[in-house]
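Write out the 3D structure for:
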Amino acid sequence: MAILGWGSLIWKPGNLHISGRWQTDGPFLPIEFARISKDGKLTLVLYLGTKPVQTLWALSAYEDLNQAKKNLREREGTSMESIGYLSILENDSNCRAVPQVLDYIRQWAVAKGLNAVIWTDLPANFKEITKTELNAENITAYLSSLIGASREKAIEYIKKAPSQVETKLRRKIEIAIDA
């Protein structure tokens, strides 16, 4: 069973139990800095309409799908509804943020010989929170509005995101925060 990652799970796994190391040949999925977390960080999430980037993956230390989902939920501090999953064996899934990715994840999982895949399935919320369109200019304005520790954490997240997760807006955001 695989866990997909594209953000802080990679460099800050916390209590996430994986077997082995993160692999760099995950499925290509539409990912963007499109979610503002509770602490103000701008985070990577599935985002329909952006270019697909190659995600990372690791094997879960759990063999039971429900235990693996519970472990990811605890790490993410979210609800079970926000844990995406695809069970090849049971032909069951949950993907609310961008349901269109399920076919890509299924094809990748079958090619890898996996029985199940889980991921964080939080929706984008940048537009709802900022009342602006998701683009580099508005993201930069949002980041500029943060102060102190909130700003530092937001910038740390962007800079520590795996380099292969080169989203459509990432380079522009990095240039703006380094200016």
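The beta strands are 2-5, 18-23, 28-36, 42-46, 52-54, 56-60, 83-87, 92-94, 116-120.
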